[in-house]
Amino acid sequence: MTPTGTTPAAAAGTVRLGDLTVNRMGFGAMRVCGPDIWGPPQDRAAAHRVLRRAIELGVNFFDTADSYGPEVDETLIAEALHPYPPGLVIGTKGGLVRPRRHAWDPDGRPEHLRRAIDGSLKRLKLERIDLYQLHAPDPKVPFAESMGALAEAQRAGKIRHLGVSNVSVRELAEARRIAPIVSVQNEYNVDDRGSDDVLAACAAAGIAFLPWFPLGAGRLLRSSRVLRAAKHAGATPAQVAIAWLLARSPVMLPIPGTASIPHLEENVAAAALKLAAADFEALTR
């Protein structure tokens, strides 16, 4: 598999993650876990088929985290795809823990992050992680200490590139003073643009922006604005929501997730959808 080509995921072009180039249509692997992103999937073989189908469609960036499952998602990716095809970039995250099903608690202590990195390396069957992101700042730990631990692991050869998630412009700037940052992963979609300033900072610096909840956890599929644009475009609401993200910024790298092959195929097809200017503006207002 190559970063560019005639596969559906290649239709939106590419984006850089440091010295790596990936198609600008990624896959958020979170949803192949069990309900509530907790425990293994009911049908493990079906989860493997979804992951493999994403590769067939030309997706060469997968997003995961040690907290998905927890410690399930990374294992599923390795089970389905290792040895990994050439050109596949796996981005994972650490810094959130799951003591129970609905808990997502920050833990940015350097000692925790060092263990988390080693755990991800083992589960993903990697000697070096292509992209490792701090999942969220921990208000109980100085941000510089958390990022310093990741920079230390990068110098030790365990991480190729660093990113941050759920950060402000100020935190992004602080992270960049500690180490080169190639990606930011914040919540962002048609109806939630609270990170517009972070996106602008990423665009100015050539940093990839990975919008999580690109479909608003499904809410956008019922939005009157999105439904109107979908009718005009002859596309599905999900495709319109993803196409809007792709048109919003050249550094945007959407990572819609699903446990369904038909939904995966629908989402990836959005890479080829070009919104009419009037529809884009209506969604942007």
Describe this structure in words.
With 285 residues, this protein is of the alpha/beta class. The protein has one domain: NADP-dependent oxidoreductase domain (TIM Barrel, Alpha-Beta Barrel). Helices cover 38% and strands 17% of the residues. The protein contains 10 helices and 11 strands. The strands form 3 sheets. The protein has a 7-stranded parallel beta sheet with strand order 3-4-5-8-9-10-11, covered by helices on one side. It has a two-stranded antiparallel sheet with strand order 1-2. Strands 6-7 form a two-stranded antiparallel sheet. Strand 9, helix 5 and strand 10 form a beta-alpha-beta unit. Helix 1 crosses helix 2, helix 3 crosses helix 4 and helix 7 runs antiparallel to helix 10. The N and C termini lie far apart (38 Å). The mean pLDDT is 96.
Mean pLDDT: 96
CATH architecture designation: Alpha-Beta Barrel
Order of SSEs: EEEHEHEEEHEHEHEHEHHHH
User: Which runs of at least 5 residues are low in confidence (pLDDT < 50)?
Assistant: none
Radius of gyration: 18 Å
What distance lies between the first and last C-alpha atoms, to the nearest angstrom?
A: 38 Å
